[in-house]
Amino acid sequence: MKKYSEMSTEELLALKSELDRKYEEVKAQGLSLDMSRGKPAADQLDLSMGMMKVLADADLKCETGVDCRNYGVMDGIPEAKRLLGAMSEVEPENIIIYGNSSLNVMFDTVARSMTHGVMGNTPWCKLDKVKFLCPVPGYDRHFRITEYFGIEMINVPMLPTGPDMDMVEKLVSEDASIKGIWCVPKYSNPQGITYSEETVKRFARLKPAAPDFRIYWDNAYSIHHLYDDNQDFLIEILGECEAAGNPDMVYKFTSTSKVSFPGSGIAAVAASKANLDDFRRYMQVQTIGHDKLNQLRHVRFFKDLDGLHEHMRKHADLLRPKFEMVVDTLERELGGLGIGEWTKPHGGYFISFDSMEGCAKAIVKKAKEAGVVMTGAGATFPYGKDPKDSNIRIAPSFPTVEELEKAAEIFVLCVKLASVEKLLEA
Amino acid sequence: MKKYSEMSTEELLALKSELDRKYEEVKAQGLSLDMSRGKPAADQLDLSMGMMKVLADADLKCETGVDCRNYGVMDGIPEAKRLLGAMSEVEPENIIIYGNSSLNVMFDTVARSMTHGVMGNTPWCKLDKVKFLCPVPGYDRHFRITEYFGIEMINVPMLPTGPDMDMVEKLVSEDASIKGIWCVPKYSNPQGITYSEETVKRFARLKPAAPDFRIYWDNAYSIHHLYDDNQDFLIEILGECEAAGNPDMVYKFTSTSKVSFPGSGIAAVAASKANLDDFRRYMQVQTIGHDKLNQLRHVRFFKDLDGLHEHMRKHADLLRPKFEMVVDTLERELGGLGIGEWTKPHGGYFISFDSMEGCAKAIVKKAKEAGVVMTGAGATFPYGKDPKDSNIRIAPSFPTVEELEKAAEIFVLCVKLASVEKLLEA
Question: What is the pTM of this model?
Answer without folding.
Answer: 0.97
